[in-house]
Amino acid sequence: MTITIKKCTVENLSLLQEISVETFKETFNKQNSPENMKAYLERAFHLKQLEKELLNMSSEFYFIYANQELAGYLKVNIDEAQSEKMGNNSLEIERIYIKKNYHKQGLGKYLINKAIEIAKERNKEKIWLGVWEKNEGAITFYNKLDFVQTGAHSFYMGDEEQTDFIMTKTLNLKNNFKEC
């Protein structure tokens, strides 16, 4: 399988919205009410919201392609774009979504490595993310990549408050080898 990662730009806005909705529904539809899913999808993945995020200089999106087919994406944040105040030495992985038919093919690891590469380029000491406490597969995946739970925060799915574990990985900035 040929893997390619490309930066997403505002010209890719419709495609970003499409893959955002598709992958979020695939991942979380069964565990949440239709009303809460609809409310979240309309708020988080509205074209104006995604455009605002794409234009934020402290956020970046990357598409991942498997054999030239769009398979998922990554969103990272630094500085004030982070969803929690984690400091200027941190990079947040806000979203890492892979289409269901590409799960368990190593694409998530490619995107984690891309986030690590970005963090190192910007001299960040840590990367962190929030993962739903009920998403056991993702938690296991992040644990295998040396992320550790360092806290928790609230995530709102429509009107339902849910808990995300905050997981953090400290980077070794003294060398350039891949972290994962």
Give your account of this protein's structure.
By secondary structure, the protein is an alpha+beta fold. The protein has a single domain, classed as Gcn5-related N-acetyltransferase (GNAT) (Aminopeptidase). 33% of the residues lie in helices and 33% in strands. The chain contains five helices and seven strands. The protein has a seven-stranded mixed beta sheet with strand order 1-2-3-4-5-7-6, sandwiched between helices. Strand 6 and strand 7 form a beta hairpin. Helix 1 crosses helix 3. The mean pLDDT is 93.
H/E series: EHHHEEEHEHEE
Fraction in beta strands? 25-35%
* Net shape: globular
Compute the number of structural domains.
Answer: 1
Based on the structure given, which CATH architecture is correct? 3-Layer(aba) Sandwich
Helical content (DSSP H or I, runs of 4+)? 25-40%
Widest β-sheet, arrangement of strands: 1-2-3-4-5-7-6
Tally of helical segments: 5
Give the class from helix and strand content and strand pairing: alpha+beta
For the record, give the distance between the C-alpha atoms at the N and C termini, rounded to a whole number.
19 Å
Regions with pLDDT < 50 over 5+ consecutive residues? none
Tally of extended strands? 7
Residue-averaged pLDDT? 93
For this structure, the CATH topology is Aminopeptidase
Q: Report the CATH C-level class.
A: Alpha Beta
**Rg measurement, Å:** 16 Å
